[in-house]
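Hi P.,

Sorry for the delay on this. The queue was packed all week, but I finally got your sequence through. Input first:
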Amino acid sequence: MASIWESPVQYLKGVGPQRARWLARLGIKTVGDLLYHLPRRYENRSCDRPLFTLAEGDTATLKGVVLLAEEITARTGLKLVRATLEHPEGTFCAVWFNQTYLTRMLKPGTQITVTGKVKRVLGTVEIQVADFSLGEEPTPAGGERWIPIYPLTEKLSQRSLRTVILRALEENANQLPELLPLSLLERGFPPRSRALREVHFPSDPEQAAQARERLALEELFLLQLALAQRRRRVIRQRKPRPCRPDGELVRKFMENLPFELTPAQQRVWREITQDMESPFPMHRLLQGDVGAGKTVVAALALVKAVENGKQAALMAPTEVLAEQHYLNLYPLLEKIGIKVGLLTGNRKKEARQQLLMDLAQGELDVIIGTHALIQEKVRFHCLGLVVVDEQHRFGVRQRTTLRSKGQSPDVLVMTATPIPRTLALTLYGDLDLSVIDTLPPGRQAVQTIWVKPGTLPRLYHFIRQEAEKGNQAFFICPLIEESEQLAAQAASKLAEELRQYFPSAAIGLLHGRLKLEEKERVMAAFRQGTIRFLVSTTVVEVGVDVPNATVMVIYDADRFGLAQLHQLRGRVGRSSKPSYCILVADKVNPEARARLQAFINLRDGFALAEEDLRLRGPGEFFGLRQSGLPELKVADLLRDHRLLLVAREAAQQFLENDPNLSSNLGKELRQELAQRFAAFKDLVG
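Then the structure:
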């Protein structure tokens, strides 16, 4: 018998090619997709309310026998089907709009159950039908009638989808293998076949909730099992040459830093050092709040790799971020004799060819770049360390491709976006986790204020006072789609407007269309204080450190996400001076209002990430498809965080006892993983 994940839904009785095309719009292509297409809610369709108790506007379910059905054309031209139905307490009417074909089905004597809004017409109950069933509705016998309500698409009705799902359950449920180990079933979770029946056709909401929880646990268990296997596949390889303990080059780099590492940075550096000196490759996620100092720890790893005769690569998702890393790291690394190059899509052909030649011959120690690093023409002499910044904006495949350019290199994944732990355990289940959880000492919390555009003159007066104290300010122009050209124009226009308000202040302009040399010149002038105010696009979101900047003004702040707002706010408050983040926004919608209010109230990046996850939902928050992981059909990472931890522990324990999945259950799980996650080769190998 073919697996439910291999059986096309088209060949299920009652589906066929046309309905299969409609189902495909919901992502339902196989019988498995159909069985795991869960109801979004349930309606109580009990038919025990007396007719006389029904009031105008109620939603009710009534059962009756057709006495008469006729097609009527209303004065507006709308075509109706109106049926008179016999009920034990009298008669009532049912009305359908634009469904004239129903007159052929509603023959006198037909039993029908209708659900819809109640209208009172001259004392008679009329139901404006939203859903109906002929004969008996598919539902468990006895008790109240809880009917599943599914996500739909055009041309599909609740009734037809319920019928198809019931048929799929009848044909498949009893033959489905159990996927949870006994240790989980003994906790009281129902068997798989029963859970699928009860989640679709429960006798009560509590039963439906228990069934959904079991199926969510199953999904998370399989996902964690796949992630644990991927991790085992990677760490099973040995490095050709582990790193030695820190030497002269690392010591010089430390001595040249204008500050000491915080205890949290030192702890994380020890974890990275142990990994790099291990015979097995490092696979570590480095998290930390804005300004916690992730980049300097990553730079230490670059230095350690070079000190051991290896090359290192740092990949960022955009040219802007790659350039920022290059501008920040180049002076630090060149000072101790490490040769650094930048590879992005806009490099001129001759310079690019020379760079690639130097890299292949080992003349370059560190390369910083974008997706350009994973192109086939890019070859390394001896790649020993891969650092991936803002990993969530890449896919796992890009990380794997870059890693494959070396022989089992160490991998350090950095993110400037705080990720809730529950999400990190899923997205990065194959990585060890390091967190820099404290900021450098002496920094004050940034005061965040929301103002309307009409108050800008008062705001600019305040900024002029800050400038008179010797402080600097950022002005971030509105986010404009994905167009660098439009963003550059907006920034240029804003700079001209500000020059009218601040005629004596030196105002710099920074955007993505400037050449690298010009960006470097502007940022150097801003760091040195010769530029007092910097007008910029979100180029400055990551990697800009100007301790003298105390004001961040963000125009049209409602158009930015919480993570991006948090990154921008992190550009100020980098000294002991009081600092301010000013949000300029007007006439925002309720969703944006909730987002801005959360940003004002919360300072901690991880708390903001949790709130962002709550407001946007897991899929949109982190783009699961980009992560190389399947979309979750049942589980919700926010609601099911407790189940995630249970599933993770159970998956690790199962693999300890059955590392090759060779037991009877292990074989079933291996087959299920290969079929359910067939589209995610990087996940299941």
